[in-house]
Amino acid sequence: MNKTFPILIVEDDLRLSETIRAYLDHSLPQVSPMIARSVAEAHVFIYQYEFSAFLIDLTLPDGDGLEFIVDLQTVLPDAKVVLMTGRAYEDVEEQLQQLGSVRFLQKPFDILALDRELRAMLPETEEAKPTFQGSLRQLRLVDLIQVKCLGHDSCKLHITGENGMHGVIAISGGAILHAETDRHTGIAAFNEILSWKGGVFYEEDFRGGVEVNIEGRWEMVLMEAVRLSDECHAMRAA
User: Fold this and answer.
1) H-helix or E-strand spanning residue 219
2) pLDDT for 168-200, tens place per residue?
3) What whole-number distance in Å separates Cα of residue 51 and Cα of residue 45?
4) Angle CA(66)–CA(71)–CA(74) in degrees, nearest 5?
5) Which of 54, 110, 126, 200 is deepest in the core (most CB within 10 A)?
């Protein structure tokens, strides 16, 4: 997919900014992220590139995120902005109301919350809308896959584990056809995803376009992944 939605991440926390970028690269391929570590660097970028949206930290090493948003809106009055901060919404509510339609994310935030904010800003395309999403603390992934296979459904599951790793599982007509993670593909990727204890996921319609890298009856594929996961967790607990 072409990168059609460039965004600027203004965040000095290297780990957080890289986690966001990795997630976007994997789960929102239409988004093209760039990172600025300071207000000064962000000012340079907004005059060099055309961005569709901005993720802006409140506290930056050389300035205030709210003040930067004011400057940004003089250059780009229709800029789509998400403010990220560890402070409560009530602490910045007055300033945000003065700025207009600026979205708010309180740190530490669930990656799925960020996903929802960005998808709300994406152009209205069918591909940009997840059909279902949730937490793996509330729903076991193995149960979800079993329901999809028994129902002969077709879907694409995007999973982000608590470890920050990303994975994709594609199911077509109840058959598990494809899996990939940041480290593996095929059965190895499927087994890795099923070993993750928690995280978040969202589901979208499956329209093909992936390499078939898993074969065999879904029952056997799922059973083996669960067996390996149980063995792995038992070894860790020993």
Assistant:
1) helix 218-237
2) 999 998 999 999 998 999 999 999 999 887 778
3) 9
4) 130
5) 54
